[in-house]
Amino acid sequence: MRLRFLGTRGGIELRTRRHRRHSVLLVSHRGRALLVDCGRDWLGALPRVDAEAVLLTHAHPDHTAGLRAGCPWPVYATEEAWPAIERYPLAERRLVEPRERAEIAGLSVEAFPVEHSLRAPAVGYRIAAGKRVIFYAPDLVAVGALGEAFAGLDLFVGDGAALKRSIVRRRDGTRIGHASIRAQLDWCAREGVRRAVFTHCGSAIVRGERTADLTVKSLGAERGVQAQLAHDGLELNV
User: Fold this and answer.
1) Beta bridge partners of 198
2) HEC string for 90-149
3) Is 150 helix (H, G, I), strand (E, B) or coil?
4) Residues with Cβ < 8 Å from 226, sequence gap 6 or more?
5) In the chain, where are the structural domains located?
6) Burial per residue of 131-148, b for 16 or more beta-carbon CB atoms within 10 angstroms, e otherwise
7) What is the crossing angle of helices 209-222 and 181-191, to 10°?
8) Phi–psi pair at 6, nearest 5 degrees
9) What are the tens digits of pLDDT across the range 5-16?
10) 118: how many CB neighbours lie within 10 A of its CB?
C-alpha cells in the first residue's frame, strides 16, 4: 500500500509551501487508488490523479467543499454526512455503513465512529490492502472502539491540530474538538502501534514546523513509536 499526502493543512487561515492545501490522502495499491477527503482548497482544481472514488470522513468544509462544483468520481460518505452536501452536483453517491467492511478501489474499508463534532459527525477509516492496514482519522477527540480500530495496525494517520494540549470543549455533554498528538501517541503505545504520521496540521504546528516535527519525533520515541508530521507531497510505503 502506498500513501501520498496531497494536502496536509487543517481548517486554518495560515498556509505555507509545505502545508498549502486542505488534507487529502491518496491511497493506492496494485494500480488502483482511492482519495480520502477533499476540502475547500481543492474547489475548481481537483487532484489530477487516477483515482476510482472519494471517501469522506465527515462534512466539515475543509474535508468536503472541494467537491462543491461536482466530482468525476463516485463519492462515499456516511448517512450523517450526506445532508450537509446534498446540493453538491455529484453524479454517484454511495452510502458508508459504520462497522461494515466494504471494498472500494480494491481496498478493504471499515468506518469507525469517532468523537469530533455534533454538527458534522465523523468517522475514521481502517483501510487494508493485502496484509497491510492503516487507520486514518484526521479529526478526532477519541475513538470509541479503539482496540478494534487499532488492532494489528501498520500505521496510524492522525489529527495534527494540536501538539501537546488537546483542543476539547463540551457541548450538550459531548466532547468536541481535537486530541493532541501526545494523546494519540499514548493510544498508539497502549495498543502496540509502532508507526504514526499526523496530517490536518494546525496553526502552531504549521508556523513552527521544524521544531514541531522534532517534538513529534521525540514524543514518539519516548513511547516506542516512529512518529512524524506529514507535509504536502509526502509519500510513504506501508
Assistant:
1) 158, 229
2) ECCEEEECCCCCEEECCEEEEEEEEECCCCCCEEEEEEEECCEEEEECCCCCEECCHHHH
3) helix
4) 194, 195, 196, 220
5) 2-233
6) ebbbbbbbbbbbbeeeee
7) 30
8) -75, -30
9) 999 999 999 999
10) 11
What's the CA gap between 5 and 206, in Å, rounded? 15
Per-residue pLDDT tens, the chain, 238 aa: give them.
999 999 999 999 999 999 999 999 999 999 999 999 999 999 999 999 999 999 999 999 999 999 999 999 999 999 999 999 999 999 999 999 999 999 999 999 999 999 999 999 999 999 999 999 999 999 999 998 999 999 999 999 999 999 999 999 988 778 899 999 999 999 999 999 999 999 999 999 999 999 999 999 999 999 999 999 999 999 999 9
- Please check whether residue 129 is in contact with residue 116, taking contact to mean a CB–CB distance below 8 angstroms: no
Contact assessment for residue 42 and residue 24, using Cβ atoms and an 8 Å cutoff = yes
Q: Are strands 107-115 and 102-104 parallel, antiparallel or unpaired?
A: antiparallel
Half-sphere exposure at residue 27, Cβ-oriented, CA atoms within 13 angstroms: 28
Q: How far is residue 164's CA from residue 157's CA, in Å, rounded to a whole number?
A: 17
Architecture of the CATH domain 2-233: 4-Layer Sandwich (3.60)
**Residue whose cell numbers read 468525476:** 72
- For 164-199, how does the pLDDT look when each residue is reduced to its tens digit (9 = 90+)? 999 999 887 788 999 999 999 999 999 999 999 999
